[in-house]
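Dear support,

I submitted the protein below through the web form. The confirmation email said the job was done, but the results page showed an empty box. After a refresh the structure appeared. I'm attaching both so you can tell me whether what I see now is the final result or a partial one.
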Amino acid sequence: IFTMDLYNMAGSPSTRAIIMTAKALGVELNSKNVNTFVGEQLKPEFVKINPQHTIPTLVDNGFVVWESRAIVVYLVEQYGKKDSPLYPEDPQKRALINQRLYFDMGTLYDSFAKYFFPLLRTGKPGSQESLDKVNNAFGFLNTFLEGQDYVAGNELTVADIVILATVSTTEMVDFDLSKFPNVDRWYKNAQKVTPGWDENMKRLENAQQFLKDNMIEKLKV
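What the results page shows now:
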């Protein structure tokens, strides 16, 4: 029996995106926790698997891939049904999904991480300029969702799952989604239609408790 090992940090958005994608596909993952706060990703045995020593990293029967958006696409292409609606074969549908994945990586998640993640290290958020970029990114997403129930096309795709993992992280920081009504509407619906949502929230709550116990109180924005 083959196993897929997912080296991850439980509460991270990238890990949660992979967990929800696996759930949508009915794929089992063997979760291996890597605590980056104490430098476990730098252990020689992990660097041997992933020289870039980033998490999450997936090991599928000896095949290694990292970068969460590459992992979710790999999982659908390898284990999904042919022409799965999660990542359809039509080049234009796929291009739109890819664009949204890159938007998440380079704009939405990036801005969120640069403003909020310094809290984890220093107890203080990023600059006002960083917060402006968060609001701009959510503004773009709000525009993409005008008249749309999903972020890329007319059904649930990996783009929704990845962006849901990012957007749900706002639960940890009291970010006011009501300023972005289309995002807020999409977010409420995505919770109902995305497999693995309950585990996503459980992991978020556990991460929040970990931070509360170790570092920070919930930040008001």
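Response: this is the final, complete result; the empty box was a page-load delay. The chain is about 55% helix and 10% strand.
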